[in-house]
Amino acid sequence: MLGCGEFSMAVDAGVRRIFYVSHLGADRGSAYPVFKAKAIAEEYIRRSGIDYTILRTAILFGVNDGFTTGLAQILLVQPVFFLVPGDGQNLLQPLWVEDLATCLTWALDDERTRDQTFEVGGPEYMTFNQLVTLIMAVSGIQRRLVHVRPPYLRAMTVLLESLLPILPVSVYWLDYLAANRTCALDTIPRIFNLMPARLSQRMAYLQGQDWRREMWKTVLRRRPA
Q: Residue 225: which pLDDT band, with cuts at 50, 70 and 90?
């Protein structure tokens, strides 16, 4: 996170605008560390004296992402069933990562985006249950969804993280899934004149992959020193 000294250096270096990718739900009062940290970073940027554009994004998906590919790996490794936090009815708004990149690029030439914070997401709302079901259909994996109370699943995840530090699942996922993570559907078309892709239109990267091998490659990878 940048401090006052770093912002002064940025001004001296001629930085004219800061682009920052935050999260839907960023809030200094959040009980979840990631969302609190994002909000604090946003506040530093707004007070820096440098023009800024902040995009609070919904969950991102794309090739080698940390969400859909991680789910595919876990679905394949877990036999018979897949553990879902709570009732799985919390709403998500998946955003194709290339659409986010396009918004950032076009914002460079749009003066209306200076000193603005936008909440952006994909063109549809879907429950976590629906998202997992779609990933199973695309990747050819069939598992029964078993709903587990979030505190129990959190305890299991913390234990797994302590035993296998590099996993395609983390407590952050559970924090993200603790509430609806959505925004207005029309922000990207209205502000950036772009119709974002639906999740189902951009999931070919999940097909034809050996997710069991990818899972174990992730688990056995050495944690950086």
A: very low
Copy the structure tokens of residue 37: 């940290």
Q: What radius of gyration, in Å, describes the C-alpha atoms of the chain?
A: 19
Give the type of residue at 125: Y
Domains annotated for the chain, with CATH where assigned, are 60-93+124-180+199-220 (3.90.25)
Is residue 67 within 8 A of residue 61, CB to CB? The reply is yes
The tens digit of pLDDT for each residue in 187-198 reads: 999 999 999 999
Total number of residues shown for the chain: 225
Residue at token pair 């009980």: 31
Phi, psi angle pair for 23, to nearest 5°: -125, 145
Contact 215, 168 (CB under 8 A): yes
Q: How do beta strands 60-61 and 91-92 pair?
A: unpaired
Q: Which residues contact 62 (CB under 8 A, 6 or more apart)?
A: 96, 97, 98, 202, 205
Tokens of 153: 């699943």
Q: Is the dihedral of CA 134, 138, 143, 149 positive or negative?
A: negative
List pLDDT tens digits, range 55-74.
999 999 999 888 898 888 88
**Pairwise CA distance, residues 220 & 211, whole Å:** 14
- From the number of C-beta atoms within 10 Å of its C-beta (0-12, 13-18, 19+), residue 35 rates as buried
Could you tell me the two tokens for 176? 């993200």
CA-to-CA dists, residue 138 to 8, 95, 143, angstroms: 49, 17, 13
Contact 204, 137 (CB under 8 A): no
